[in-house]
Amino acid sequence: MAVELDVFVGNTTIMDEEVYQLWLDGYTVNDAVKVRMEGGVLEEFEASADVLLSDTMDQYRTFQMCERLLHSPAKLANQLLFQIPPHRQAILIERYYAFDDAFVREVLGKKLSKGTKKDLDDISAKTSVTLKSCRRQFDNFKRVFKVVEELKGPLVENIRQHFLLSDKLARDYAAIVFFANNRFETGKRKLQYLTFQDFAFCAGQLINSWTIGAVDNMVEDMDVDLDKEFLQELKELKILITDKDLLDQHKSLVCTALRGKTKAFNEMEARANFKAFAFETFIEPCRSDRWTASDMRLYLTHYTNSAHILDTFKHQVVWDRYMGVIKSCIFKMYHD
Amino acid sequence: MPGKLKAKIVAGRHLPVMDRASDLTDAFVEVKFGNTTFKTDVCPKSLNPQWNSEWFKFEVDDEDLQDEPLQITVLDHDTYSANDAIGKVYIDIDPLLCSEAASVISGWFPIYDTIHGIRGEINVLVKVELFNDLNRFRQSSCGVKFFCTTSIPRCYRAAMVHGFVEELVVNEDPEYQWIDRIRTPRASNEARQRLISLMSGELQRKIGLKVLEMGGNAVVGYLQCFDLEGESGLVVRAIGTACTLDKLSSGSAPNTNTHVHPNTAPASNACNSPSKDGKEPVFGEDLPSFSGPPTPFRALPTSSSSPPPFSPSKPCSRQSSSSDTDLSLTPKTEEPLPVRCRPGIFLCPSSPTLSTDTLSLPGSGSVGCGHGSAPRATTPPPHSSVRSDSALLRKSVSFTEDLLLAASGMGSGGSAGKEAGPLKTLLRQQTQTALEQREFPFFTLTSFPPGFLVHVGGVVSARSVKLLDRIHNPDEPETRDAWWEEIRQEIKSHAKALGCHAVVGYSESTSICEEVCILSASGTAAILNPRYMREGCLDIGSTDHRFEEPSPPSCGFCHIPYDELNMPFPAQLTYCYHCRRQKVPDVLFTTIDMPPEAAVTGKGCLIQARLCRLKKKAQGEVNATAISNLLPFMEYELHTQLMNKLKLRSMNALFGLHIQISVGENMLLGLASATGVYLTALPAPGGIQIAGKTPGDLSNEHHILTIQKRINDTITKNKELYQINPPELTEEVVGSPIPEPRQRSRLFRSHSESSDELSELDLSHGKKDAFVLEIDDTDAVEDIHSLLTDAPPPTGFYSCNTEIMPGIYNWTTGVQMFTSVRVFRLSNANLTNQGLNKIFTDLCENLLKSFYFKLRSMIPCCLCHLNFTVAVPEEELIQVAVTAVAMTFDKDQTQEKPADKPVTKGCSETEEQLQFPLELCADSSSITTQTSSKISGVPESTNVSPRVSSLERSSPLPEGRSRSLRSNRSFGGSSVPVVKMTPLSFLPGTRIIKYLGIINMFFIRETTSLREEGGVSGFLHSFIAEVFAMVRAHVAALGGNAVVSYSMKECVLMENPNKNQAQCLINVSGDAVICVIETDQESMPSTINVVQTCSSGADGAT
């Protein structure tokens, strides 16, 4: 004795947001039923476990059928199979493309390849995000990556238009694409304390200022690849370090400006002579020296401004483009 | 050469990848109508091809236009091998043939493949140019409107209700042709889909012809069904009610007085009687050429048994010979009928009365005409002159009265009583003559214009078991026609026995298992107002008051139509609790919707009786005999269950009663659904009293007491739940009990106006007469337990199977239509009837519980029009399919019944022309040109579709259309128009401004990768979703934004999990409409006057 077939189809597709989330999170039907039972739907609405199971199965089936459409969200709006009110469509898409910070932190900067996909079970174990959900998220990254890879125009806007995502989510995806494309290592131990949002912010900064798109907005990959010319120009900034005079001059200017304003002056002074800012060589020591955030802000501001005072320093524009990003990134990354 | 069909293929989108190498598709389209095919160019390497083809033109007969669908096939071009079909779209162009319906079909259609389902969409434009057809010998019936809605459609007025039309066509089922062995499943499915589409078209055309003959211009309550008989063929049959409808418009509304009132023209009554010569008046007005000498028209054989030759395009279809006007049934009765057994059942108010025919095997009985089978009656009643073949049936469960034979009085409605002045009597007699001239005074309508329904007698039904493999000439429709003829005759005689001259809420159905087929018909015996049968009646308001008695009181329909001295069955009569002048029965069962003017106490609820009966597996006659022997018992038990459940809820009337008996190899399933209410006019039901068989047994006594207590508690609880607090009547004037009903019923009807004499014998009002249930064995205990297990719907939910819930009047706009299917596999063969019953009951109850749970976000809400269909697809499977709509309502005002309520349904129209947008495009001009060719009566000014800006969310047609044409790739936003669907005839909060035509679609889906598609559930889930999508797309393409009166007539699922295969057939139908949100300002001006004029009678109810 068993229910051999059990379907429920509404003219307007019925979707329970709670069940959708469970489905996205990769719960099996039975687990989802358990969670729902614990959630108290039953008491709230005198239903039996059978009813809950039947409902969950129905919803899961619906979501599975929708999944194909969610892969190209634009289709969801003009497909005929499911009648879903527009605001619901938006929720469906947004939720489908949402990801776990814990998961993305693991994948960020890695190549979105088959190899990485094979490691998903490790990531799943590590982050306690179900493998199913990991796969979905990974596939989403990959899908977005593939689509925008070949598109012209601003990255964030492309993602937003093609996947009908909110601005916030589109920016996050832009960051993911940016990192994946540039393979910035984010997995190092010293970087572990940084959240995805920190990186996303930095990526945003980099995209806005350092990519080709920042100067020319009609090139392919414009927001994904860093501006090569700019990188070349950066080399010229080395003059600040290589040129002994300039270095000393700069250093003293910074030190003068900072004198008396902070207790941590001594350390700052020590650090005033560095090459290009790199994470390990700057933030990390600062952290270990327990600079406060305001100290850091102060220091960087003066560091930037002082360079302008240097008469012999000819690369003001590049310097600003460089330091602007560095400054904001460091501010963002400088936390516990 | 009366028509030119034009089609244009615009574009495609979301096509599947057909070429794996390039991940693209080289698509082109074939457009086929009849035997003509056109092709578009190949649009290479695109999944979103733009064809923008020229107009493909087909010059065709309008007969073909009615029968044939336009067939669009999308293919993938392949240079080296055969082109691969992507899928097809069948477009029924019938809506374009009626000037009042759609003018153009334009939109995105899902491309459907019977193996793969929906594969992308195609944008198509279709137009029809119709030329005037003045040929009287024509075979087409273009212009006749069809409605699934079982009431007068909202924006029409019934000028005349002509009556019953039916038709039946038979063909060989392609699935059973020899060629099926060598062709692919896809080819076979497509052949079937196409054939059924053709047959439905043909059926509709023929029914249309009958309607034209009768002088009507529309079919309302059109019910079309398929019988998949298997080897013996595929039957498509339809019934409906022919009407003459006038479109309501500001122009035509006030002219109601111009119609000839029935009283002033009684003579016209006779000549307008159906189908004899009633055609002239209606035709004559618009088409002068029609009003010539009627002889040639008459010369056309009204019995279509010798039809003019068909066009060669469909040689395979055969025509039914049964026309409504054809009384000579000689060809049919000459056929030796293999098995004739016609258990006929009355479901009468009060106590069940059963009559059954015996099974007369060939040779044994006099197999001549339909009436002579040997009576099996145990105690043939002395007065059985009417129906000698009735049988008395007894059962151990006893009611207060013994069961009595039903067929007694000929009742010509003599119980008119006090309110009957001489005028009324005259009218009634006229009606009767008018109705009696009809072969079948049946009406498929379930709700009626005010005043139409005078009295309701009770439910009449008839069933008959037939053997399909005995059909002498299976390719011809005669045998089936004869079968149905027989059943209809029986229904007619049942109605007569109830003193009624008409049957309303009439429907027919079949259940087939292997070679056995159960034919069923049921309806509600009623007395109708004669005015509606005649020309120019049905005027809402004004005329009502000039002649007749002030429009009938809201309780009028409850009054008994039969003679109380000669009741057809034992019933307890009382004086009506509302008007106190007429007699009413203690319980009323009907198949119709509750009349809007009826006064109810509290709310109603869904009441279901469920029953399983095992039977031995058998073949042929033995099987048929076994089934027909079981049928009366099943009917009886279902009826008992219904009665018990009704009492348990403290209600006294059932509406929308639908009893389905489904046959399987080893069991019969019976499901009766109805909506119970407490009619204020009827007496309060007595309780249920439990009686033990063996008094003295202490434990037993105790047991009975506890049960009794539970029952009483349940009744109290239900009263509270359904808010049933009838006003306690202070004094009971009516009192003396009628003498032994048994004797009474044997009296011949004496033509006395008995109720005039106040001191006359009267019935005990029966209030405290408890209904006695006897517990004599475990079965009875089980029965009572099952009685108590029906869980009431959770708080905030109501459910009913009628259009709307009696007692709820303030619907809000939330609407969710759904279809749910469950199949239950019985684990082992060692099941008892008891066990089966429990399983079946649980299955139904759990389904309801699931609905409540799923729709909990809509609370407060009511599940309306819950339509359960049961089937036994295989030996150990039980299938239940449900289609219903959940509608929200405003909780705060549920008690009040707004005065304008019955009116908003009918007739608000004046403001339609207020807003004509400037872009009255080519479409509307083509409408106006078409109006010249239409054949309806009243000249109309509103044929140009009126548009109101406030279309709900979806856009009205012109906008939607132009958008879809111009920007095919509009991303974002909702480019798909919202189409609402409902099984009801209306959408709450909206007003239907236009009917665009009937939707009648048949789909087959098959899979050979069942597991991959998610098992049977996944398979069916996506199929149902696809069917919805295709219905919505067709409606949107017609320019509509809703489907009303939607129903899923058929859902046949066959599976073979071992082979990883499944096949499913679904048939759906409904009316495509444009509706607009009803705002207060809009509805005000037009309704006020009508409220004043026509609903004064109804006011008395509240």
Automatic annotation (TrEMBL), chain A:
GO molecular function, one term: fibroblast growth factor binding
GO cellular component: nucleus
Organism whose genome encodes this protein: Lates calcarifer
Pfam families: FIBP
Signal peptide bounds: none
Listed name of the protein: Fibroblast growth factor (acidic) intracellular binding protein a
Family matches, as InterPro entries: FIBP (IPR008614)
GO biological process, one term: platelet aggregation
From TrEMBL, chain B:
Pfam families registered for this protein in UniProt: C2, YbjQ_2, YbjQ_3, YbjQ_4
GO biological process: insulin receptor signaling pathway; intracellular protein transmembrane transport; positive regulation of D-glucose transmembrane transport; positive regulation of protein targeting to membrane; positive regulation of vesicle fusion; protein localization to plasma membrane
Keyword Protein transport (UniProt): yes
UniProt entry tagged with the keyword Cytoplasm: yes
Record-annotated C2 domain positions: 1-109
Keywords, sorted A to Z: Calcium, Cell membrane, Cell projection, Cytoplasm, Cytoplasmic vesicle, Lipid-binding, Membrane, Metal-binding, Protein transport, Transport
Protein localization: Cell membrane; Cell projection, Ruffle; Cytoplasm, Cell cortex; Cytoplasmic vesicle membrane
Compositional bias (Low complexity): 313-330
Residue stretches of biased makeup (Polar residues): 250-275, 939-953
Gene Ontology MF terms in the entry: calcium ion binding; calcium-dependent phospholipid binding
InterPro entries for the chain: C2_C2CD5, C2_dom, C2_domain_sf, C2CD5, C2CD5_C, C2CD5_YbjQ-like_dom, C2CD5_YbjQ-rel_dom, UPF0145_dom_sf
Chief subcellular location: membrane
GO CC annotation: cell cortex; cytoplasmic vesicle membrane; plasma membrane; ruffle
Recorded superkingdom: Eukaryota
Region annotated Disordered, chain positions: 250-336, 357-389, 931-972
Protein name, as recorded: C2 domain-containing protein 5
